[in-house]
Each structure stands twice: as C-alpha cells, then as structure tokens.
C-alpha cells in the first residue's frame, strides 16, 4: 500500500477543496470543533467510526481517507485555468523561449535526455532510464483522450487562435495542428519517461524544480555542477514539439511534497494572446485542481491523481522509481522535412500528408539522435557503470507498431565506444601499432583566473583517445568532445591532416569525464567549459557568461586546447617519414594535375577541382592514388569522373583503367563516378590502377589525373 500523507495536512487541504470550515465538519461528524483542530494540528487522530463519518462528510470513500494518497473528489474539480490578459494591455504572441529550438525530435531527444542525466539519482549508482513512446490515436481512443483533457473547455481558445492565425507564427502552427487532428482523425502523443531521477520536487509556486519547469521561464535548477543545462531553455523543446502547445506531466517525487510522492499531475498549455467571449487571456494555461488559497480559487495547481485518471491521460508509469513523465500532445517533427526522412503511409500516397507526423520516421530519428549524442553516457567499463539507458517504442491505439528498441552505443558509435571502454578498462596504448587499439594522450587545458585577472589558475589534464574508424561511426577523422554528463558537446575535424592517413575517430574527455573529481582541476574545468557553451550546448567558444565571469580573451584557452588536441592526434595517426623519402618524392613528381582540367568551363559555374594528390606503387606494380577534391559552394554539384592517363611527350595520352575506386570522405562512388555529399566542402577518394592495362612498367611511367564532368567519356 502506498504511503499516504499525514492525516492533519491532508484533512486541512480537503476542507479547503470542499470549501468547508472546521466547524461545519465538526457538526457533520458530531464532534467538537476542538477535536477537528486537534486532528489538523496532529495532536490527535480520529477513531475508526469517526473516520467513516469524515468520509461521508467529504463525499468520498473510506479507502481514500485511510490511504490519503489522493485528494477527495468532492469540492473544486480539476479544470483549466487561463492566465488573464495583462492589465496594461501588453500582449505576447507565443513563448519566446520556444523559438530557440526547431520542432525537431532530434533536438527534443538531446535536450530532454540531457535534463534527465542532470537529474539522475547518484546515490544508488544506477543509470537514469529514459524511455520515449510514440503513440498515434484515432477513432474512439482519440475521442476518449479528448474527453480526458477536457477538450470542450479548450476548444473556444483554439478557435480564437485559429481566427487570428494568419497574423503570427504560433497561431499558424496551432491552427495546422487542430486541423490535422479533426480532418485526418488522428493525434500523435510522444511521452518521455525518466526513472531513477529526482522528479519535479518542491512547491507549486516557491523556488524548486516543479516551479522552474511548470511555472517559470529561463530558470535552471540543476542537481549537480556537472550538469549539462544552464540556460533554462531546454524545457521549451517540449512545447515547441507540440503542434497544440500542450504538455501533460506526471511526476513521481524522490522527496515527498505534502507528505506524498506518487502521481503529482499537472498540464501546461502555451498559446498566444487571445480573446474569448469578450475576455482577454495572456497566453499560458494550466490543467489542475483550483487552489483554494488563490483569489476566487481560480489558479490551478498540481493535484495528486488517482490511477484511473493517470491512465486516461496516457501518463501511467511502469515502475515506482522516481522521475517524471512528459506527454507531448500533438507531436510533430518539422525538421524531418529537411532530413529527407519522410515516409508517406499508404493512406497518404497522394502526397497530401507532409510527413511531419509520420511516427515511423520519428521513431528512427529519435533512435539516431540518442545514439549520436549520448553514446558515451550509455557506455560503461571497468568499475564505471553507464549513466544512461535509453529506448524508443511506437504504438497505435494501444497496440505495438514498432517494438521497444533499446539504443545500443556499440551499434551507433562502435569506434568511439571501443575507445571509451578501453579507457575505463585501462587497456589503452601509447601508440597505434595494430587494428583495434586505442591510444591515449593527455592534453592540457590551462584554466584562467576569474574576474579578468591575468594568469593561470591551474592546468587540467584532459584525456584524448584515438582509434581506428569503422563505417558505422559516420564521418571519420573527427574529435568528439564531452565533459561530466558525457553528452557529446563538440564535433570537429582535425585540420592539416596529410592525404592517405588511415581513417580514425577521436574522443576528448574533459572535466569529470576525464576521470572524476580526483583529476586536477576537474571541478574548475567543468565550470569553465559549461560557461563556454551556448544554449544548444553544441560547442565551446566565446559566450557572454565566459566574458563576464572570466575575460573577453578567455575563449583563447579553448582555442589553445583545440590546437593541442590536433597536434596530439597528428602525432598518433600520421606515419613518420622514412629517411629514404626520395622515392616518395619521385613518385609525387610522377603524378601531376593539369592546371585547367577538362571539366572546367570559363563561362559556367564553378566545378569541383582536384586540390591535392598522393601516390605510391603497390606490391603488384599498380599505382595507388589518394586525391582530395575542393568543392565549391553550391546547392547541387555535378557528378565527376576521375580519369588517370599516361603522360607522353607527343600524341594522345593512353587512358588507364581503375582496378578499384572507393570514396573516403565527402563523396560516394557509383560505377566509377563521384557523387558529392550536399554541403560538404572537401572530398577524398582513393583508387588503384589495373596493372593488366599498363603498357610499360609502372616505375617508368608518369601519370596525369583529371577530373571530368559527367561520366568522363
């Protein structure tokens, strides 16, 4: 049986909800007013027969009075409270914080999973478990849900927003969301549950995590110094992902509030300013129990819901572990249109559906985003356990459409996961000599003194890990940087790498991620790097906070760290030149590029052009060539064909065939033709010639490599 609230505080609140005085209760249960006062102050408890009469007076069942885990159903009912319009006539046409993020489930996963990591309960050593559930409702299930959220109360407000939708962005989004629900008879719910987290603790109005998330904007109350968030903006992604601006919340608290922990429920609606039935409303609204202490008992506060109510709102949690469930009502994924991930269902083959509510595509993008950004938090090794477990499941009308998929970091980031595990297991090496090894270097982060003072506080030894790249890692030759909560913050390439270097992946661990609080200046590095992150937490660089707390040149310390990292990577992955390097020089001289390739036209648009070459002669006598291509800025780039020719003194140059032609970076090879990845600035390919077609011995030849438009005929 659940642990209920103490009888006195519980009874006091029920009297307020029922708008009943102590004297009226005393008369109803045939006791003195002094007896009721003693119950409320905790100086006495009623006898069993008196408790039965109290239940009757409050118009509730006997079990509710005994368990005291929910409020009685008597008195003020759950409903919507809409914030009145400002007395000075001011108007807000949407929550500005929501404009900091796109309606993108990938961004949503990054922000919400980061928040869950920040609120992980660390005492038990267990990871925080985050579960994403997509649920499409149609037919009777949709009707029942609309009834549960009191849609009839909300409908006039949505209609008022729709009438003025053409005048502002938020209104157009909401209008489209309402039309989609009614015209297509569907609604997509996206629930985010975390377990082994703190939950929304604290009072409804005073300082605390509940008020920071539900009542306030731009407030960040985190549980630890290694937290990822710092701006209080991440929660806005919940409402930004809802086409209806509506999020419902059910929290299981780690610290009791009002004597209880289970099923603390509230809803928040974000709409623009509107006028309904002659009355103006400022924007936000809350679903809750009217607060009897507010003026006119109008303001809605959270309430302790029963299991049936939570079930009807699709907020049922699957365990008693503390944490919070957020239900995004009317979830959509506008950013999927730019990613080319839209899948039209059979019912939408005519193209009438823009795909932003395609739950299969949303499922895939959630899994990809979690694997990309949180692979390190999901990785353990040695004495270190993972900080995070994440999964995605998709339903339609309560039936499983896509089975729950647990995100596996070894699938999404195999090389980086191997590198981090080697660090935890203590199996790193000083230099890479075999495939699969992980090399370790420490690189210095020199922390500045705060307050604009000159000098260095101390040097923090960040940890650099380098290993071979695998195809599933994505773009190769990159450094992923992270700190305490082990979310990937910065992704960057390594400048100045020579052609032909073996593909690698690198990981930079800073702050607590470099080995915990025992690492010199780990706490200070966490604080410094956290201040160097923008609201998106996707890089380290100059920020206003960095300038105010340290100096306007503090970001130079981060630039210096990048330089140190790049130098260490090159030392590990670039093979040293042999003393007899004259042979290599001769080979490079034997391979040339015409100053003007056949593909360039003076009057046409800029075309990709060869920008660097490296060549060796293989064991079988073949030419082994690695080439780098400079790509112009253009939305679409033409396909190009690399052609290798023998350089002769007179006559036509004989063409050699490729025995192998493969893409390395920034391009794809299809039937000997290079196709370039959109928005890439450089591409690298590698090839070897067919020795059977060489007319003379390779060592006696000189080559010309050309890049021709199209199929290069």
Characteristics:
alpha+beta; 5-stranded mixed β-sheet; 20 helices; 12-stranded mixed β-sheet; single chain; 713 residues; 27 strands
- β-sheet strand percentage: 25-35%
Compute the separation of the termini in Å: 80 Å
Using only C-alpha atoms, the radius of gyration works out to 32 Å
Shape: elongated
- Residue share in helix: 25-40%
Mean pLDDT: 84
Largest sheet: 12 strands, mixed
Residue windows where pLDDT falls under 50 for at least 5 positions:
223-232, 344-352, 577-589, 595-602
Structural class by helix and strand composition? alpha+beta
Tally of helical segments: 20
Can you walk me through this structure?
The protein is an alpha+beta fold. Strand 11 and strand 12 form a beta hairpin. Helix 1 crosses helix 3 and helix 2 crosses helix 3.
Offer a concise description of the structure:
With about 725 residues, this protein is an alpha+beta fold. It is built from 20 helices and 27 strands.
Secondary structure elements and pairings:
Blueprint: H1 7-17, H2 22-29, H3 33-41, H4 48-57, H5 62-67, E1 79-84, H6 105-118, E2 128-138, H7 139-148, H8 151-163, H9 169-183, E3 186-195, H10 209-214, H11 236-240, E4 242-252, E5 264-270, E6 274-276, E7 279-290, E8 300-301, E9 303-304, H12 307-312, E10 323-331, H13 336-339, H14 359-373, E11 388-396, E12 399-406, H15 409-412, H16 414-425, E13 438-448, E14 456-468, E15 478-482, E16 488-493, E17 504-509, H17 522-531, H18 544-549, H19 555-573, H20 582-590, E18 591-592, E19 609-617, E20 623-630, E21 640-646, E22 655-656, E23 658-665, E24 667-670, E25 673-676, E26 682-689, E27 703-709
Parallel strand pairs: 2-11, 15-17, 18-27
Antiparallel strand pairs: 1-7, 2-3, 3-10, 4-5, 4-10, 5-7, 5-9, 6-7, 7-8, 11-12, 13-14, 14-17, 15-16, 19-20, 20-26, 21-22, 21-27, 23-26, 24-25
Helix pairs in contact: 1-3, 2-3, 6-14, 8-9
């Amino acid at each position: 049986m659940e642990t209920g609230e103490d009888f006195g505080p519980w009874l006091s609140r029920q009297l307020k909800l029922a708008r009943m005085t102590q004297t009226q209760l005393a008369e109803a249960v045939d006791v003195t007013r002094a007896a009721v006062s003693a119950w409320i102050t905790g100086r006495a408890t009623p006898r069993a027969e008196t408790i039965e009469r109290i239940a009757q007076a409050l118009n509730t069942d006997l079990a509710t009075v005994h368990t005291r885990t929910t409020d009685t159903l008597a008195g003020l009912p759950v409903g919507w409270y809409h914030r009145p319009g400002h007395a000075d006539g001011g108007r807000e046409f949407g929550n500005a914080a929501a404009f900091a993020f796109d309606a993108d489930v990938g961004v949503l996963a990054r922000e919400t999973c980061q928040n869950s990591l920040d609120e992980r309960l660390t005492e038990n050593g267990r990871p925080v478990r985050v579960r994403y559930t997509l649920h499409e409702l149609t037919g009777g299930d949709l009707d029942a849900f609309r009834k549960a959220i009191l849609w009839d109360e909300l409908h006039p407000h949505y209609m008022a927003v729709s009438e003025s939708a053409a005048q502002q962005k938020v209104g157009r989004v909401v209008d489209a969301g309402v039309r989609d629900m009614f015209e297509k008879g569907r609604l997509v719910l996206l629930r985010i549950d975390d377990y082994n987290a703190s939950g929304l603790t604290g009072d409804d109005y005073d300082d605390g995590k509940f008020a920071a998330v539900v009542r306030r904007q731009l407030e960040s109350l985190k549980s630890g110094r290694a937290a990822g968030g710092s701006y209080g903006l991440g929660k806005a992604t919940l409402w930004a992902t809802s086409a209806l601006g509506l999020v419902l919340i059910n929290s299981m608290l780690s610290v009791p509030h009002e004597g209880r922990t289970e099923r603390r429920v509230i809803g928040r609606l974000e709409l623009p300013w509107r006028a309904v039935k002659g009355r103006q409303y400022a924007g936000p609204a809350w679903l809750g129990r009217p607060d009897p202490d507010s003026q006119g008992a109008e303001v809605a506060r959270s309430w302790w819901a029963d299991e049936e109510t939570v079930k009807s709102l699709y907020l049922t949690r699957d365990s008693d572990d503390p944490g919070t469930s957020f239900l995004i009502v009317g979830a959509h994924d506008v950013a999927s249109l730019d990613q080319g991930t839209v899948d039209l269902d059979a019912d939408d083959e005519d193209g009438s559906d823009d795909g932003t509510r395609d739950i299969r595509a949303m499922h895939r993008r959630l899994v990809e985003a979690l694997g990309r950004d949180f692979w390190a938090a999901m990785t353990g090794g040695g004495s270190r356990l993972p900080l995070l477990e994440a999964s995605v499941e998709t339903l339609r009308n309560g039936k499983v459409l896509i089975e729950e998929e647990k995100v596996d970091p070894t699938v999404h980031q195999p090389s980086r996961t191997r590198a981090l595990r080697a660090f935890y297991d203590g199996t790193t090496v000083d230099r890479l000599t075999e495939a699969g090894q992980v090399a370790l270097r420490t690189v210095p982060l020199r922390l500045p003194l705060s307050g604009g003072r000159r000098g260095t506080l101390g040097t923090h030894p960040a940890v650099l890990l380098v290993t071979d790249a695998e195809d599933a890692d994505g773009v190769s030759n990159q450094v992923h940087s992270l700190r305490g909560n082990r979310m990937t913050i910065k992704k960057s390439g390594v400048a100045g790498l020579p052609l032909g270097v073996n593909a690698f992946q690198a990981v930079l661990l800073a702050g607590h991620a470099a080995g915990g609080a025992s690492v010199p200046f780990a706490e200070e590095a966490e604080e410094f790097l956290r201040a160097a992150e923008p609201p998106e937490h996707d890089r380290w660089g100059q920020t206003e906070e960095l300038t105010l707390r340290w100096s306007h040149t503090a970001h130079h310390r981060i630039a210096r760290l990048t330089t140190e990292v790049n130098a260490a990577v090159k030392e590990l992955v670039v093979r040293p030149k042999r003393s007899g390097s004259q042979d290599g020089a001769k080979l490079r001289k034997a391979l040339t590029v015409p100053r003007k390739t056949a593909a360039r036209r003076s009057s046409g648009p800029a075309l990709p052009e060869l920008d660097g070459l490296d060549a060796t002669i293989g064991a079988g006598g073949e030419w082994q060539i690695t080439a780098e291509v400079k790509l112009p800025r253009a939305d679409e780039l033409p396909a190009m064909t690399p052609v290798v020719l023998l350089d002769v003194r007179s006559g036509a140059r004989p063409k050699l065939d490729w025995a192998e032609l493969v893409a390395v970076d920034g391009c794809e090879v299809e039937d000997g033709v290079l196709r370039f990845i959109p928005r890439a600035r450089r591409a690298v390919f590698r090839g070897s010639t067919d020795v059977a077609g060489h007319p003379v011995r390779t060592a006696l030849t000189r080559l010309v490599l050309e890049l021709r438009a199209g199929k290069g005929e």
